[in-house]
Specification:
Blueprint: H1 10-45, H2 48-51, H3 54-78, H4 84-92, H5 99-104, H6 115-130, H7 138-144, H8 149-164, H9 168-176, E1 190-196, E2 206-208, E3 215-218, E4 221-228, E5 234-239, E6 242-247, E7 249-250, E8 256-262, E9 266-271, E10 275-284, E11 290-293, E12 298-299, E13 305-312, E14 317-326, E15 338-342, E16 351-358, E17 369-378, E18 383-385, E19 389-392, H10 401-414, H11 448-460, H12 464-467, H13 471-486, H14 490-494, H15 497-509, H16 511-532, H17 536-563, H18 572-577, H19 585-600, H20 604-619, H21 642-649, H22 652-683, H23 724-740, H24 766-788, H25 791-826, H26 852-871, H27 875-887
Helix pairs in contact: 1-3, 1-4, 1-8, 10-11, 10-15, 11-13, 13-15, 15-16, 16-17, 16-20, 17-19, 19-20, 19-26, 22-23, 22-25, 23-24, 24-25, 25-26, 26-27
Amino acid sequence: MADLNAIPGLKRRISSTRARMSRLALFRAWWPFLGFVALFLAIALAGLFDRLAPATAAGLTLAAIIAAVLLAIRSARRYRSVPRGAAEAVLDRQSELRPISGLRDRPARPQPDGRSLWQMHTARLAEAAAGLKVPGFGDEWRRCDPAFLRFILPLVLIGLTILAGSEAPGRLQRAALPDIAALAGADDMTIEAWITPPEYSGKAPVFLEADMDDVRVPAGAVATIRAFSRSAPKLKRAGETGTETIRFEETPDGAYEARTKITGDTELSVRWWGERAAWNILASPDAAPSVSFASLPELTDTDRIRFDWTAQDDYGVETLELRVWRREPHPAAPDAEERLAVDIVGLDRREAEDTAEIDATRHRWAGLPVNVQLVATDAAGQEGVSETVPFTLPEKLFLQPLAKAAQEARVTILREPRSYEELPENRENLRPDTMNTASSGRLSAAPQGVRRAALMLDALTYAPEDYFRDRSVYLGLRMAHSLLETAPDKAEADSVEPILWAVALKAEYGDAADALRALKAARKALEQALRDGAPEDEIRRLMKAFKEAANNYLAARMAEAIANGLPEAPNQSDMEQQGGPALGGQDFEDMLSALEDLAETGASDQARQLLSDITNMLENLEFQQGGSGEGGFPGMPGGEGGEENAEEDMPQEERELTDALERLSDLLREQRELNDDTLAEQRGERRRGNGPSPFGQQDPSGQGEGGGETGEPRQGEDGQGGGLGPRQRDLADETDRFAQGRENGDGPAGGGEDGPERRGFGALEDGDRERLEAIRRLQERAARELERGNLGRAERLQDQATRELRDLSGELAAALDDLRAEEGRENAGQDPFGRPLNGGSGVGENVTIPEEAERQRAKDILEELRRRFDETENEDERDYLERLLDRF
């Protein structure tokens, strides 16, 4: 047998032929599978799966996978590998000599004389084998692939891949790995997710969407995920502390909800038959606040602690406190400390600075050396502290012996840190029909300080008929002693503190102490209402209570001054000559009016500051003995001659401008009420009041000019605009009387040029009178339209008259501010109450009253917002205006 490998190129041609035959065999066996896969890939690259419903796409993919597996099994079974002999046979058939098979033959009976002949035959076969060629199998390919799919399908796939571009991998992935859970209803699952930052951060919620980039939120935010699905999914949370799974809880509306707090960088994923949604959340840490003393604490003239401070925090300081602890603490309580609240006035607390004043005279450590430190706390509970400053807490000075004794007993109780001793059981006193004396005699178990205070009080109240002029002081001390005798513990013993403090004040100041407590209580209630944004009616009620408390306090101080030897009420000139506080009645009324304006226009911080200044001024008010004179105490509400003296002391031009502003304010207020009532009538709503105009004539019986009692509808008011027309006409008449210098009579004022009937007339110039005349004409036209029932046209005329009145009031207010500024430069050596700035008690030096023009502008803005809110019908605009009005 000849060696086939020795024939040049024959082995290579046999291998090539075998490979071609193998490819042909593979194609014949696997072409259904390959064609099916190519078709699937073509559909996927074309994006057809993305257009199908998730359940449909998942079903098709699942069916395609099953079909592909079946076709693959069938093809694997049909495929047979091509042996080498088959390739040799194909090559051998190219020659009639069959050279490859012939070369494998050998002589059956070799003969010596036939060897040469066999070698010639072998050489001929080798030559024929060397001439064999690798067949192309073209006919076989045409028979099994007449459509040339083996070329067309790859080209189609390449073309679709080029067209799909960067989306090709995603399309293939979504087609090959569909959401199989959609077959179970996962495609109907709806996920709503949002992150709510901490309220103190002031940031809006962040709504999470699919395929979002990294989301950065403040640390402490709460992520809320709501899912609407057939069963409860799971929330997987991966963070710095590890991975945990949070279960969803079903809500009443049929949804499933889960919440988690974001304290650090976190990855969240919702899983239900696979991952439904995922987000990467980055948490911004909340830094601790910083605080420091801008100026060291110092004592004021009123025994308050005053200091300047600065505080910073990335989201704003929530609370500020003054931490106090004793430098020489009691051995029983070495770590005792207390914190005094510091009011934070500013709205923006990220970088706040202010001057604080704290009344610590009632503190249990008053008069003792202490250390103080500012502590700023943010909404997350983190604290920042300032440097430690040594200080001595101010102590209230009591001069009356009984007051000093009550104060000493009080602080003795408060400074005792030890608790009561435990008494042994006393079962004898638990028998029926017996008196339990042990339950009321607990003083023997009290600590030393409480026992000492009880002995002091017992000694103080000995022989009351000889030492007590005021029975209430005696009764207060005895009540405190009785409470100490029956107190079961230290907390109950400490409850006598307000009693002893009130007794000390009563013994020191008399009835003025009660009035001062009422004033402070009224101030505290009003201040809290301003801070919390209470309703307008509540603030108005508390404002009235504060005015009454201020009047009562001033009356009590005046009575106290008279009782202490002031022979008569000093007049203004006497008090100014002595450098004493000359509190003018108009000045005090201006303060209260400014306070009302600030509260009405929503300037709560300024209102609280002015409220504090007024209260401090009243507390520090001093009465000095003056010379003879007529009239009462200047500026005392209810005092005889107070208001008249204030007006007499006011310059003529300023008094005229003030009166003109008051009359214009009355006109403007009534015109605004008419505007509101007209609008309510136009909408078919109930009007606030149908009564006659306050400017109408009144008869002695108290009935209006239209008859009937005040507040009852007059005849003819049932019709459209029937009651509004006469009110508008009355207001027009009042405007005309003001412009002409007349009062309610028909003729000129009879009081002379300076008579009360011409109040405010002298401040009007010719241009102002012309503008008032134009306003009167607008009001007359509005009255006619109201009587005719044309509410829409009447409302437009009323609005125009309101704007004109408002503009005129603003101009007069600016003129009054300029006049007062000029007077202030001329009297630079005096404060607003006529006292010298370099002497006296300093009462009212820090009281800052906003300018009249500024307050008027705030009122105008508020009125314009209300007008636009009433007129607009756009819901979005109404919501926006309502939010603005809520700030007021």
